[in-house]
Specification:
265 residues, alpha/beta
């Protein structure tokens, strides 16, 4: 979105932006003194000749974000650029608006739409962004970095079925990561067991996604027998699915990361 803003300003366009979840980092990348930020989508439809969509597809939230109601509030010459997801635009509603003359502008996307086949105003471009040589190289490097980060620190990012988890590595911590059922009282059972073994938890992170939860804990002392600690945790908490003792991350003190790996059969 930020790059589109810069390009539009370079073309001499007046830029209007709407983002209900704008964070500080993203805001700092925007030329706030040269663009107008509005508080509702209705203001976007009413003011803009060109609308560029930069949203994820979320059922019941962004599904058909562009629909008959929004088109009725738009300028007649509205042009839509959608390189996000095809489901964001209601093709049937757009075709109806074109047929009635309510909308005369074009729709540019890299997604085909069954309702818009043969429509001169629908310009479909190849969806090749992820297939360039640069993208393939970047994707491979990102996948390798993600796996390495998990092996070394227990962090989970960009997972399709596990929660996002990133806990900074403590300077003198001994880390254990635990995958378990997302059930009430599990974290308490884990910390109670470790406390009973005289371990002090210096930092921890517990996150969940659906039925799965993931907990990362840093201990302030070196377990003399990590395998015994993990075996005891399994016995103390039936909800644990698997766990991994990393030792001191990056120190390789207990061998390769994941040396002490337990899973429930």
């Amino acid at each position: 979105g930020g790059k589109v803003v810069e390009a539009a300003l370079a073309l001499g366009m007046k830029v209007v932006g709407y983002d209900p979840v704008l964070n500080v980092e993203s805001a700092l990348r925007l030329p706030g003194d040269r663009m107008q930020r509005v508080n509702t989508l209705d203001e976007v439809w009413a003011q803009c000749d060109y609308v560029s969509l930069h949203v994820p597809y979320i059922p019941d939230i962004t599904h058909h974000l562009v629909n008959a109601d929004t088109l009725a509030k738009s300028k007649r010459n509205l042009c839509i650029l959608n390189f996000a997801r095809g489901e964001i635009v209601d093709g049937a509603a757009l075709k109806s608006a074109w047929d009635s003359g309510a909308i005369t502008g074009k729709y540019v996307s890299d997604f085909a739409d069954p309702y818009l086949l043969g429509q001169d105003k629908h310009i479909v471009m190849p969806h090749l962004g992820a297939s360039t040589a640069e993208a393939e190289d970047n994707s491979a490097a990102m996948a390798a970095d993600t796996v390495m980060n998990y092996l070394e620190t227990g962090s989970i990012v960009n997972s399709v079925n596990f929660p996002h988890c990133e806990l900074p590595v403590a300077e003198n911590g001994y880390r254990i990561s635990i995958a378990h059922k997302n059930s009430t009282g599990v974290l308490g059972e884990i910390t109670t067991y470790l406390g009973g073994k005289s371990f002090n938890i210096t930092q921890q992170l517990n996150v969940s996604r659906g039925d799965i939860a993931y907990t990362v804990l840093d201990l302030d002392s070196d377990p003399k027998d990590p395998e015994d600690i993990q075996s005891g945790l399994f016995d103390a908490c039936d909800a644990i699915l698997s766990m991994r003792f990393l030792g001191h991350p990056f120190d390789n003190k207990f061998g390769a990361p994941g040396t002490f790996f337990y899973t429930r059969n």
